Amino acid sequence: MKKHIAVLPGDGIGPEIIAQAVRVLDAVAERFGHEFEYEYASIGACAIDECGEPYPEATHDVCMNADAILFGAIGDPKYDRDPSAKVRPEQGLLKMRKTLGLYANIRPVKPYDSLLSASPLKNELVAGSDFVVVRELTGGIYFGEPRGRNEAGDKAFDSCVYSKAEIESVAHVAFGYARRRRGKVTLVDKANVLATSRLWRETVTAIHKAEYPDIALDFMYVDNAAMKMVSNPRDFDVILTENMFGDILSDVSGVINGSIGLLPSASFGDSRALFEPIHGSYPQAAGKDIANPIATILSAAMMLEDSFGLSQEAAVISEACADAIAKGIITEDIRPSSPYGTKTVGSYIAEYILQG
Ligand code: IPM
Ligand code: MN
What we know:
By secondary structure, this protein is α/β, with parallel strands linked by helices. The protein has helices spanning 14-32, 45-51, 57-64, 77-80, 89-99, 123-126, 164-180, 195-211, 222-231, 243-257, 294-307, 311-326, 342-355, and strands at 2-10, 35-40, 68-73, 104-109, 131-136, 144-149, 156-159, 184-189, 216-221, 238-241, 264-268, 273-277. The chain contains 13 helices and twelve strands.
């Protein structure tokens, strides 16, 4: 199979973890006789430095011409220290998600048995949890208008806006996942306070009744869901939620796995797909060869399976990652005393694949 992949390393540890994912993809190509062609493009702080734009037109063209997009991370502390900055790296990521129409973000969580002790939570509580967060990605408070400041500059506002159509699109994705899993969707919202959440409940309930009566649907307020996620994570199968709640809850889910550095994600629209780790650019670790490449490598596996239909190849990548973890070839986020770095973990996984 021949595929053209847009590769967007981004900022911070992005380039290092992406390099390992590409190495693993090359190993898959060699072992299974595929041809993966990569086209690199810039996004985020490095794109602002190059051309003043966090998501340049040229990068958009690369994404539009690709069969799938692999993305690293975005963000640079020099912008965090300057709240008045007019252009921020994160705007690049948001613009990319919006212009590519990537409305559904899938964040699967399933801890490794060999890593249960890495979670700060009690092992018996975490063992056996297996759920996926389906996060709406192109609406809500991230994009709603109006937003900004009043004229005096002493008041700021963001708007949370959702249309029925936006909720329907992502709800279908969540029910689809539930059908292939354990048949349960939990809609997480704040319907006791927010009008948008009440529209979510109404819309999701109607779709459920009309098209997915075989799926169990329940509702949970987001504050309660955050508590349940760390006290009873096995209760969840598919969590369907809006953009901001999904952002927060998916970081919480990193605690269950032992490290956020292990969690991949996929973002889908009607015609495009992007794959990225859920963690950020971790600037303090950039260039130190300590970042965990596994979340990005597993994102590449999701790309093979979900965009190219290469399930066997994806399974081999997952198996290779599980083997690295079981043998202790892991970075210091999981075991602080580990002598292994980003490159060693990447080579171990690539070698495992090549050895067949
Ligand atoms: C994520 C990130 C982004 C988000 C940031 C970098 C804008 O935290 O993908 O979860 O909030 O969506
Ligand atoms: Mn986030």
